[in-house]
Amino acid sequence: MSDTPKPNTTPDESWGFLHPECHGQNALLFFSWDLARTIEEQFRHHSEAGMGQQLHEAQEAVDRLLRQYVMIQANPKAFEGQSIVLQLEPAESDEQGTPILALRTSPELEALLLQVQQLHRQSATSLN
Questions:
Q1: Residue 40 contacts by C-beta under 8 Å, 6 or more apart in sequence?
Q2: Is 29 in contact with 5 (CB distance < 8 Å)?
Q3: How does residue 128 score in pLDDT terms, banded at 50, 70 and 90?
Q4: What is the pTM of this model?
Q5: In the chain, helix, strand, coil percent, each to 5?
Q6: Residue 66: exposed, middle, or buried by beta-carbon count in 10 A (0-12, 13-18, 19+)?
Q7: What is the C-alpha to C-alpha distance for residues 120 and 110, in angstroms, rounded to an integer?
Q8: In this predicted model, what pLDDT tens digit does every residue of 33-76 receive, in sequence order?
Q9: How far is 1 from 68, CA to CA, in rounded Å?
Q10: In sequence order, which residues have a C-beta less than 8 Å from that of residue 17 and are 6 or more positions away?
């Protein structure tokens, strides 16, 4: 059995930052899941608003999420002083120019997130 935390699977389940195992390397996985959920929920909750307003609301929620991980000291070296900026960029493959959401993550946090996601994929593959 793996000690790796599992992502939330239903809207009623608590956020990763509320999980008792949300510290150290685990915090990075929980943060990845919470980040995706945060962005998705903000765009869904503000679907009637214009794209600019949706982006603004999602950015505020991402900022709050990052502050939450700093506040609980889930992994101070990973989260303190880091940032994630949401931007809309034109999709190169889309002739109509439909924008796509791009995340500009501070280099230190991005490297840690990519590393822990790779480790998680490797452990999941070795279990199968």
A1: none
A2: yes
A3: low
A4: 0.82
A5: 55, 10, 35
A6: buried
A7: 15
A8: 999 999 999 999 999 998 899 999 999 999 999 999 999 999 99
A9: 30
A10: 27, 30, 31, 34, 65, 68, 69, 72, 74
